[in-house]
Amino acid sequence: MTAIRPLLLLALTLAACSKQPASQQDLDSLDQELTAAGPGNQRDPALTAALRDQIMVDPALTQSANTNVVRPPARPDPLSAPPEPVIATPDRVTAADLKPTPAAKGDCPACRKATGALTLGELARRQSAATAGCADHVTYSAGWANRLPAAVPLYPDARVREAAGNDACGLRVVSFASSAPVGRILDWYHARVTRAGYSAEHQAAGAQHVLGGTHGDSAYVVYVTADPAGGSQIDLIVR
């Protein structure tokens, strides 16, 4: 009996040392279930090793993750905002400066000439054969807006955007904006040109209106379109 007691104590001690805590046993059981979830996992050592590996995270690389993902901008896109409305300004135009423009005709050949014109020179070149060669040699400068003939000047509150010209043939082309509505622009130019002896023909297609005419060898064309923000956009061609 005395000899058996030490052997019994040794067996109990070894059993206690080999027994794992309950929490560790639970983790091992879960790991075995994951790695043996299907026959595919048992046959793929790489997948089994990947499931058993600890996930490593590098804080220095977290900001560069998903670099190709589309994210919202850090600040609003300025081009997505609607245009600011044009505030009407006094143009010093009186009723005596206006003359009602005749109704537009059904067709608008002048509108078709302007379609797709990307530059003032190209717009002028499309008007007639007489201006085509001259328009090929225009130069661009805002100063051309100050060299228009007295009979066909800029509208009083004009905001010049671009201007071109060629002194060799007296060509002037000016693009500008105004806070005045389309009808007021047309009536003002109609009064100016007819009092100077020019003819006047009104054409329109959609939102685009064209007033044009001649006086001897001189000619003019006024393109007027309503600005979505208010007022009008004008292209003036004089030769």
Summarize the SSE layout with pairings.
Elements: H1 4-18, H2 22-35, H3 39-43, H4 45-52, H5 109-114, H6 120-125, H7 129-135, E1 139-140, E2 159-166, E3 171-178, H8 182-195, E4 201-205, E5 208-215, E6 218-226, E7 232-238
Antiparallel strand pairs: 1-2, 2-3, 3-7, 4-5, 5-6, 6-7
Protein name: Lipoprotein
Region (Disordered): 62-87
Biased composition (Pro residues): 73-85
Compact description:
The chain contains eight helices and seven strands; from the N terminus they run αααααααβββαββββ. With 239 residues, the chain is an alpha+beta fold.
Structure, described:
There is one protein chain. Helix content is 31%, strand content 20%. The protein is α+β, with helices and mostly antiparallel strands. It folds into two domains: 25-52, no CATH class; 95-238, no CATH class. This is Lipoprotein.
